[in-house]
Design a protein that fits this description.
- The chain is α+β, with helices and mostly antiparallel strands.
- It has one domain.
- 43% of the residues lie in helices and 38% in strands.
- A hairpin with a 5-residue loop joins strand 4 and strand 5.
- It starts with a strand and ends with a strand.
């Protein structure tokens, strides 16, 4: 009568995962004033919204989403990044008997170890994909709000540029603004 033995192999690994996603666009600001004056208006509007000036441009980070605005050329990058650490484990086992040759036992153990490593790789890829999906979802959730907010910034910068340009051209007799629609009416005496 032969006795059965269980060969058990376990593998584990810890991985550092990094995921990021971004969208780039450009603000469409009319060239009413010289670029430096328009950039100054843009900086003031962005600072009022919590942006800070850095080497990259005007930057604000909220809820893992970073918005970077280059006030010189109007380029905008909205990005989401996340790092994480994941530990994945895999275990495989098989039954052998007393009469199983030693070479067969070693071959079986190698096969089990390879299967465990493949399972680790698959689990690691799944964790990486899940992290990437979270980052992309977070970016998509914030894009609509960022677009509306930056659209308002462009409207306010354009309105202020028009007022300054009108003041340079002559005396402003009447000025009417509708904040909801963004309409500005300027009556000017030249």
């Amino acid at each position: 009568m032969s006795r059965a033995y269980r060969i058990r192999v376990s593998e584990s690994t810890t991985r550092i995962l990094r995921a990021s996603d971004h969208v780039a666009t450009r603000l469409e600001i009319l060239e009413i004033l010289p670029p430096e004056a328009t950039a100054a208006l843009l900086v003031a509007e962005l600072e009022a919204l919590g942006f800070e000036e850095t080497d990259e441009g005007m930057v604000r980070t909220e809820d893992g989403v970073t918005v970077v605005v280059d006030t010189c050329d109007g380029s905008v990058v909205v990005r989401s990044e996340e790092n994480g650490e994941v530990t994945v484990e895999s275990e495989r086992s098989a039954t052998v008997y007393d009469e199983t040759p030693e070479a067969e036992r070693r071959r079986l153990e190698r096969t089990l170890r390879e299967e465990a490593k493949k399972a680790l790789e698959s689990s690691g890829e799944k964790a990486s994909d899940e992290l990437q999906q979270r980052v992309t979802d977070r970016l998509e959730q914030h894009l609509g709000d960022v677009q509306r907010e930056l659209g308002g910034v462009v409207n306010r910068v354009t309105a202020e540029a028009l007022k300054q340009k009108a003041a340079q051209l002559g005396e402003i007799k009447e000025l009417t603004e509708d904040p909801e629609s963004g309409n500005v009416t300027i009556v000017l005496e030249v």
